[in-house]
Amino acid sequence: MIGPFFMLWPYPLTFAPIRPMIDTNKIFEIKSKSEFDCLALEIFHFQYSNNPVYHDFCNYLGKTPNQLGCIEEIPFMPIEFFRTRKIISSRENPQIVFASSGTTNTRTSRHHVIDTSVYTKSYRTAFNHFYGDISKYCVLALLPSYLEREGSSLIYMAKDLIEQSHHPDSGFYLNDMNGLKKKLVHLDAQGSQTLLLGVSFALMDLVEIHTFSLKNTIIMETGGMKGRRKEVVREALHSILKKGFGVSHIHSEYGMTELLSQAYSQGNGLFKTPPWMKVLIRDPEDPLSPQKDGKTGGINIIDLANIHSCSFIATQDLGKRYADGSFEILGRFDHSDIRGCNLMVL
To answer: 293-312, pLDDT tens digit by residue?
Structure first.
């Protein structure tokens, strides 16, 4: 057995980039599968040549650009590398560093973002793709665990969406559950189209204190109990929230610190990606082999907006993908699931 891959080379590695930068506008102009595939392969070549960590990871697996013919053959880098390495495909200094939440027993992931305008264009364009013009909404954000720390990519996005809504009542809520209740009821009674974006545990806290019958409000959970509550399956969470808010659907946002794009579910538990993002499933018994549609496995993500870091990431999430490209999240690998996900111990 070979030891963890991240121990196989000295860090930092430096070498001169040998491929020119790609026009980032192309990422958000994709209109077909062939355009996505061509650009994904182009970005793979670029990152192989310009990202020292990803370059060595690909070489270790024997996956070099001249050996690849389709996107399914592209190596997906373990998301854990963002905890121990500087994952970057540029020599420029980052404009911002996003950090994940963490516990005393785990390292946090750090995402060095070279160009924040790419992130901004990604989430703005994706929101418009799924929900329309943000200026039609009042945006309320119930994200206490994220507001209580620095470096959250979700707070960065929510703050900008609040500002872009141009609604006088848009804003963040931390612990003022009574004030949020009054605001939601008032806006809904006025017929205002409202989006409540909230972390799961805080939404549950809210409906334990207050009950609603909302007609003009989208409830969107971002997942995670953040150690505040016992984790529950999505079906149970959504059942509680639907009853508490008096709505027929709970929407979901699927994103993470290591990505610059988000997928959305509009109430049926199935997530859809914007045109520049794609989910593939890896075999739970062989993490280097793709899994067929409809089969459970580890979630691999292609996020072309991650052009300056790594666009090809093997996550710790379990899920299924369907023929239309939609997917569902079924849970996470834990530390005992060595066979299923761990590329680190190949």
So the answer is: 999 999 999 999 999 999 99
Residue 14: pLDDT over 50: no
Taking alpha carbons only, the member of 250, 342, 246 closest to residue 6 is 342
Separation CA 2–CA 265 (nearest Å): 39
The partner residues of 264 in beta bridges, in order of sequence, read: 253, 272
> Which 3 state secondary structure label does DSSP give 96?
strand
pLDDT-derived band at 4 (thresholds 50, 70, 90) equals: very low
pLDDT at 275 (0 to 100): 98
Encode 267-293: b = buried (16+ Cβ within 10 Å), e = exposed.
bebbbbbbbbbbbbbbbbeebeebbee
Segments in 19-172 forming alpha helices (H): 33-50, 52-61, 81-84, 116-131, 144-147, 153-165
State the pTM of this model: 0.88
Q: How confident is the model at residue 337, as a pLDDT?
A: 41
Residue 343 makes CB contacts below 8 A (sequence gap 6+) with 5, 76, 77, 78, 287, 288, 314
CA distance 202 to 240: 13
Cβ neighbours of residue 286 closer than 8 Å, sequence gap 6 or more: none
CB contact set of 70 (below 8 Å; sequence gap of 6+): 37
How far, in Å, CA of 284 to CA of 289, rounded?
9
Q: Is the pLDDT of residue 342 over 50?
A: no
Which residues, in sequence order, are CB contacts of 230 under 8 Å at separation 6+? none
Do the Cβ atoms of 252 and 270 come closer than 8 Å? Answer: no
**Residue ranges in the chain assigned as alpha helix (H):** 33-50, 52-61, 81-84, 116-131, 144-147, 153-165, 177-190, 200-209, 234-245, 338-341
Strand partners for 271: 265, 327
pLDDT over 50 at 8, yes or no: no
